[in-house]
Amino acid sequence: MKPPKPKSTGRSSLEKAFDPFTAALKRGAKPADPTPAPAAPGKPGLEISPLAVPFPVIGTVGGVEIATARAGFYKHQRDDLVVFRFARGTSCAGVFTRHKIGSAPVDWCRRHLDGDEGGKDVRALVVNAGCANAFTGKPGADAARRTASEVAKRFGCRQRDVMLASTGVIGVTLDDRKIATRLGEVETRLDADTPASDQWTAAARGIMTTDTFPKGSYAECRIEGHTVRIAGIAKGSGMIAPDMATMLAFIVTDADIHPNVLRAMLGLHVRTTFNSVTVDGDTSTNDTCLLFATGASGAPRIGRVGDRRLKDFSRALDGVMLDLAHQLVRDGEGATKFVKVTVDGAASPASARKLAKSIADSPLVKTALAGEDANWGRVVMAVGKTEEPVDRDRLAIRFGPHVAAVDGAPSPSYDEARMSAYMKNAEIDITVDVGAGRASATVWTCDLTKRYIEINGDYRS
């Protein structure tokens, strides 16, 4: 349902009903700015997202070195290979896509992290961009194994101690020779005295595909008087509707934490961070989130889930993960709006989450946001189609501080002018109370613009 509009708007209801892109196109029809938009550091031809945030200064996380190189998975000049080398005794935990057609690197990591002694003494992580090595059968699995073998020989460890991740085009088998021929160069760079923040910045750029800015986050906390550092990078712009992880995310801390504890903490925080963002409703074959603990901080080892000494660490880890997740949405392909969707009054947490994701994933809601149209009738649609418990006569909808609907009907205080002005903001909050209980959930998303179609229409070119 759509609220009544004053005659002064100068735009017919039929025009708005049948052309959700009209307002966005009108914005795009303004005279061109003579100053060209800055180009993104990833794929040529992409402009940096208007919602981009600066890459943070990342301090030294003990027990990890990072280097990048150009393996040649892309035609243009750019680094597309990233290698992390970890200190002996590093713990690791991961969460991965539940997509039924997982990639060879996902299979490799899951198998070795879930096995006996899994996640103990992980020594390396190898990431490539430009080739997903997904839906490649036995040749893809063999390429992943050979990559781990080559790195293991150079680092003096077992194959199982090398984690792998890939991103790029599905259905292309990884040419592992491109990685093997660059490992000597990578080793030299690992041994170089490169500032930590430069290493992290280069790594974040090296894993980009259609990303328009590198994504990183950093925090410090205390464990029994010792300063502990947490740093992370992520990549993702499209095909973002994570299911147990995100596109790619790698987080390293110098705390000393047992793999079982890392696994529990990662599972705890992934639900409200990486699994609470969506760009287009599509889940990747390669979704991977890996958390490493090097133990180099000097803090005491934590070997029990629920140890009270982890309280500050847990808060800091959640902050890093949520920051990275938000950056994925800010870099949603073609995005111009960063949108927070909150559902209150749901029958259960699961119901609240399903309702919030229905709103956040709705193309009709997202195109209205792109057109800066507070078409709350589309929110009503997205709520009702879920078949979740909803009390129609208690339903309330707000855009920011502005009430659009209350008690299942248009708000008597609805002000079209104020609502339209709010919709021009780059960051928008949508809050819906469904009146069926006391549970809440929050999901972050972005708008859907014609740039999304343009970017994905020539993704492989």
UniProtKB/TrEMBL annotation:
GO MF terms here are: L-glutamate N-acetyltransferase activity; L-glutamate N-acetyltransferase activity, acting on acetyl-L-ornithine as donor
EC main class here is transferase
Q: Which reaction does it catalyse?
A: N(2)-acetyl-L-ornithine + L-glutamate = N-acetyl-L-glutamate + L-ornithine; L-glutamate + acetyl-CoA = N-acetyl-L-glutamate + CoA + H(+)
Q: Site described as Cleavage, positions?
A: A245, T246
Chief location of this protein within or outside the cell = cytoplasm
The protein's assembly and partners: Heterotetramer of two alpha and two beta chains.
* EC number(s) given by UniProt: 2.3.1.35, 2.3.1.1
- Encoding gene (name): argJ
Keywords attached to this Swiss-Prot or TrEMBL record, sorted alphabetically, are: Acyltransferase, Amino-acid biosynthesis, Arginine biosynthesis, Autocatalytic cleavage, Cytoplasm, Multifunctional enzyme, Transferase
Pathway it works in: Amino-acid biosynthesis; L-arginine biosynthesis; N(2)-acetyl-L-ornithine from L-glutamate: step 1/4; Amino-acid biosynthesis; L-arginine biosynthesis; L-ornithine and N-acetyl-L-glutamate from L-glutamate and N(2)-acetyl-L-ornithine (cyclic): step 1/1
Task: Name the CDD domains for this protein.
Answer: OAT (cd02152)
Q: Which family does it belong to?
A: Belongs to the ArgJ family.
Q: Which residues form a coiled coil?
A: none
This protein is called: Arginine biosynthesis bifunctional protein ArgJ
Q: Name one Pfam family in it.
A: ArgJ
Return the NCBIfam families for the record: ArgJ, PRK05388.1
Give the positions of the site Involved in the stabilization of negative charge on the oxyanion by the formation of the oxyanion hole.
Answer: T167, G168
**Record: residues binding substrate:** T209, K235, T246, E333, N456, S461
